[in-house]
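Hey team,

Filing this mostly as a record. A colleague (T.K.) asked me to run one chain through the structure pipeline before their review meeting, and I want the input and output archived in the tracker in case anyone asks later how it was produced. No errors, nothing strange. Just documentation.

Input sequence:
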Amino acid sequence: MKIVPIFVQQNKREGLFSIHLDNEQEDEVTKCIEQWLLNSEYLNDFFTLHQDDLNSGYYEKVISISEAINYTRIEAEYLFTKLERLAISGTNRGNDNLSTAFMPLRDLDYIQKPLQQVKSKTKIQKRWLRIYAIKIGPNTFIVTGGAIKLVGTMNERPHLLKEKQKLDDIKYYLKEEGILDQDNFEVYEI
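Output structure:
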């Protein structure tokens, strides 16, 4: 397992980082970009497999697979542009940083904790994309994965449970590596 810089300023240990799991070809952010923005076949297969969820009414109306693919691409482009802008500007100014893009994983969990599990989503279109991460500091997040969430909770589908498990596994890994906060992360060798 490696930690890979994604949207960071040169010579800074702040910004958006991603986990690259040993058995994967790409880090988690790159995988999400590939699946959500560049791979129509992946999206078509996903929405075909989850068509019942897509049309369950959770997002209010019946949506065709082609509409879902279009919504996903628009949302993904917005999400990654926003994360990049906040990661870079947050290392310069300190005001508008990644903390504004991430919220606690559990909606009622607002107490700050070390290595807090968080999610990012947009306020546009259908809002079904999720980026899952571990918060290291106010402008330092390590992405553990991402998912298209068409149901109410992560416990309802295997692909969401997999993301939840990755969050737990990577939080454990960071603790084992002695990364508990920004100071520890500053000296960790990437």
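Quick notes for T.K.: Helices lie at 28-38, 40-49, 51-54, 65-92, 158-176, 182-187. Residues 2-187 form one domain.
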